[in-house]
Amino acid sequence: MNILLLQNLNKHIVLSEKEQEYFFSFFEVRNIKKKGLLLREGEINKGVAFVTNGLLRSYSVDKNGFEHIIQFAPNDWWMVDMYSFVKQLPARLFIDALDNTEFLWLSKEHLQKLYLAIPQLEHYFRVLAENSVISYQNRLISNLSLPAVERYQNFCEQYPSLIECLPQKQVASYIGVTPEFLSKMLSTLKQE
User: Fold this and answer.
1) InterPro entries from the xrefs (predicted)?
2) N or C: which end of the chain has fewer CB within 10 A?
């Protein structure tokens, strides 16, 4: 039983000991090396990942080969290409590891079984989905209406544990600027 996932679960629902054992019996511990791919664009996303140690990211690649980071998933975060997972259609995103990463894998098939066996889990995953939609909506509004410095500040609030460990290239991609622009902006902020 993973303590990190149990704590995450307990923020929203409480399961009996028997339900906890049943819940955890469906997860598979997986590891992926730094730069390893969990999902390629075009593949079907057949499960969800809960990061227990390491760092995943999801991103798209445009026609010019530029990466656009959608999300980071440090410890205690879930990662999935929701479009592909729900619709069982080809993924629009890549998901890879920025560090050697351990995660708990739950297949779509097993998740459906869990929903039937433990109805509270539908509430748990619904709350996660609602929070994700809110986060994406706020990010979209931010990207459309805020200057880069405020998008950077939002990034720092969203991912405080990543500020020091991510290369500027990754942060720049997430906030939608070039690495050179981010470097110049951070220099200006330090001088102020």
Assistant:
1) cNMP-bd_dom_sf, RmlC-like_jellyroll
2) C
